[in-house]
Structures are given as structure tokens and as C-alpha cells.
Task: structure prediction
Amino acid sequence: MNNRKRGTILIENLMFIILNLLFLTILILFLARQGNGAVVLEQSYAKNIALLIDAGKPVMEIKINMEDAINLAEKNGLKREEIVKINGNIVTVKLSDKGGYSYSFFKNVDATAYPDIPSEKNYIIMINGYK
Amino acid sequence: MILKNKKDKNRKFLHCTLLPKNRRGDKILSAYWFAVLLIVAAGIFAMVYVYYGVPYDVRNVEGHLLINAVADCISYSGRISSGIVSSGKFIQNANFLNQCHLIFNSSEWKDEQYYTEVNFYKIEDINTPLLTIKKGNNNWISQCEIQKTEKKETLVQCSNEIFYSLDDKNNQYLIKILGVVRKSEKNVKM
Result:
């Protein structure tokens, strides 16, 4: 009788711990996914690149490590060349099939963006000259 | 005895046992426990939504970059551009900033989202500017006055910088630059 009761307590506690761990794991995964989500990264990189162009001067070549963004884009079936686009004075970063995020810069320069060599997960921003 | 029965009744009512025959899990799977889990999860989801739902506000950095770009244009290596002051005399060229390779409009916005103003003062008199040059949407300047008394994120971000420079006759001038960036919709949760 006594043994049966002890066994019950052990299983109850085990289930309690397992459920708690499961709950915490789901929450941590959710938080990690949110922090590395396409929406957050798109905004962060678009603003970063726009500010770098604003701070840069003609003939500058800026190399940005975009490993997390490139990994996510490739996971979402996008090519590296499609991640960063500069049209006029608007930088657009796209990491999923949905829209992407755009941010404008105020320097009237001709800027181009292209990925680094395949082994490096960088992006290169070239400021070619004033328009 | 009555009290004990009442307690048991309450317990049976509140603890919805999913395993009625075998009551091992009844402590874990009680309605209370689910309520606590739901409240904690809802709280964390709400916090995450609030945290990641707010855009990064980069307008302050952008304002300072704008000021630096303007400063580089009007004064290089400590000398004011010859397009502004020549032989110790200011040239009244209100459109000088158009030569600074700045573009304030974009297809993203209906109106220009930037404004910049440069005031040149003599060292002896820092109240009356000798020359004022401006560029951008001057509708935003009134919001800078409001920002001085009451900080509101939804309004424009105004940045100021002051520096000294010399003209070709080595006269000293104090230059005040104001940089205004709006872009509120992209930087603040409206």
C-alpha cells in the first residue's frame, strides 16, 4: 500500500516536471523565433544599410555580415541576390516571400548591393558616386 | 465531518480530473494549473508582441548623420565653403544646400521627411545670424518647439550641433546646424 503511494507521487512529480519543461521549451522556442524572425531582421538590416549609405561617401565599399539573414532567406527559398535591393534612394530587404521592408536614405548617391563570394555570408554595399 | 465533506466537494468541483479512474494526473491537469499556464503564456506572448511590435527608432542617428553631411558640405577642413563666404563677405545663396548631394523626397513618402537649417554667427554675437540656409520640409520645424517642452515620440526628431569654422580671411564663425527627421510611421508605433 505504502509502495503504491510512493510510486504515484513519483509519477505525478515526473509528469509535472515534464509538462513544465515542455511549456518552457515551447516558450523559449517562440521567443527565439520571434527575435530571429524575418520581420525583425528585415527591418533591422534595411535601416542599418540605409544609415551606412547615409554615413558613407562615394567609392566606399561596405561589407556587412548578414549570416542570419542569408540563412533565413535561403530557408525560405530566396536566392542571395534577391535579399537586398536598392532602388533610387530606397533600400529593400526581403527575407521571405512576403513584401519585405523598405527604408529610404537622404544621400543622393548611386549605391548598389550584391552578395559576397558564396563561401562568405556577407553583403557588399558599393557607393559608386554622387548622382 | 461536514467541513471535510464540503472540502471534498469543492475539490471535486474545481479539479476537473481527466483520468477519473486513475487520479495520478489530477494534480497536474487541474483547472487551476491550466489557468496558471494560460495566464503565464498570455503574459509572455503579450510582452513579446509589445517588444517586437515596436519598430527600431533610428531617427536620432539619422538626424546626426544628416548634420554631419551638411557640415561636410558647408565647411571642409575647418574652412567655410567659398560658395557661402568669400573675402570675408557672405554670399546670400539661400539654395546652397542644393549642392550638398542630399535628396529629401522618396517614393516611400508623400512629403519630404527631412528638414535642415544652418545658421552662421559671428563669435561676438551669437544671437543674430549673419546667414541662414535651409532645405527640406519646413512644416516639421514647429514640432521641434513642442519637443523642447514635451518629449513625444510620434513627432519629429530634432538634433542640433554647433561648431566653429574659418573663412578665407581667417575670421571665426560659429555654425549651428539643425537636423529634423520625421519618418514617424517607420520608427514609432503610431
